[in-house]
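Annual report, structural modelling task.

Input specification for the iron/sulfur cluster complex:
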Amino acid sequence: MYPNILHLFANTTNEYPETLQHIKWEKEINHTNIITVLPKDVNGEMWTFKKVVDYYGYPMYSKRISNAIRTYQHALTPTTKQHSIDYINRNFKKYSKYKDLPISDKCCERLKKEPLRRKAKELGLECAILGILASESYQREKEWLEYGCNVFYERKDNQSRPLSFWTDDDIAEYIQRFNIKIPKLYEMGYNRNGCMYCGFGVQLEPVGQNRYQKLKKTHPVQYNYFLKNFKNLMIDFEINI
Ligand code: SF4
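The model returned the following structure:
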């Protein structure tokens, strides 16, 4: 109904080259009305994935685990620290041994959410339409069950998430039926085009074929950068690369 609707693309500085190529195609060839939002703070200073990892810690295992570890590490009193430990042991005991490593869930906030919020405010946008699926994570499913697809005037931001109850098969069928152009990454053995180095869920991926091991084969330049900067962390996190 609104072909010229504004799109915001949050370039997290951690994007696959194919994602960036696709955005370029959308903008220049497909004439999609799209603005790229870079992760700058209030003072206009640029954040990068590396800077976020150095400053806050690596987004690893899952959002909930990283959040619990950050909460534990920043607990101000022995009581709250103990509560954090109890929470970790109760919910994800096997990750407790990583709780003193540099892990944090702040990355999305710095690289994606905050810059998008600021841009939306600057442009006076009233509602964001997001393509997230409930099946993508525990958190997204929980949110959908609690709020449904349209969350208007209930939280800080108005959001419509019309694909919430779609499955991966629904998406695949839609792409085929309407002949939608998608990033080349999907032809290279990937089924997500999220952030390249993100650690959320990596421990659950097939042995020998996790995202970093795939990256080694498909994107050697990006993989070498990853090795140079994060290899030691991966050893501590016990992630095969
Ligand atoms: S998806 Fe992962 S790497 Fe990307 S911004 Fe969020 S936490 Fe960071």
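The pocket of iron/sulfur cluster is lined by residues 12, 14, 59, 107-108, 111-112, 194-195, 198, 200 (CB under 6 Å).
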